[in-house]
Amino acid sequence: RITLVEDNASLAKGISYRLQDAGHAVDHIADGAEAEDHLKEDGADLVILDINLPGTDGLTLLNQLRGRGDMRPVILLTARAETQDRVTGLDAGADDYLIKPFEQAELAARLKS
pLDDT digits over 25-83, tens only? Predict the structure, then answer.
């Protein structure tokens, strides 16, 4: 199972369809505050997390996950492309960092690894 936290509805729909076609169950959440509650109880195997979210931002969510010892893999998915942004995300505990726009095949390869 994968939890996708992404506020762009069309992008989230495309990602969800692609992941479901590959055999994954996907829970999509568009709001950071809602995701905060969901991730406390959710047993997903992996989280795909946007940084710029309404409510609680993705980096705060990531810090909360890691702060409570939740070490499931997290891929940050964001338009923030500067080196310092990538370093900040990885230092916060992300396992990978993918910059928008991206190819679905690249996301699939990163999920595999």
Answer: 999 999 999 999 999 988 899 999 999 999 999 999 999 999 999 999 999 999 999 99
Quick one: tokens of 11? 């992008």
Measured CA to CA, the distance from residue 9 to residue 30 in angstroms comes to 8
Cα–Cα distance for residue pair 107/113, rounded to 1 Å: 10
d(C-alpha 59, C-alpha 74), whole Å: 11
- The two tokens of residue 51 are 């940084």
Residue 28's beta-bridge partner residues? 4
CA distance 73 to 16: 17
Task: Give Dmax over CA atoms of the chain in angstroms.
Answer: 35
Question: What is the tens place of the pLDDT at every residue in 96-105?
Answer: 999 999 999 9
- In the sheet with 26-29, reading across from the earlier edge strand, the strands are 26-29, 2-5, 46-50, 74-78, 96-99
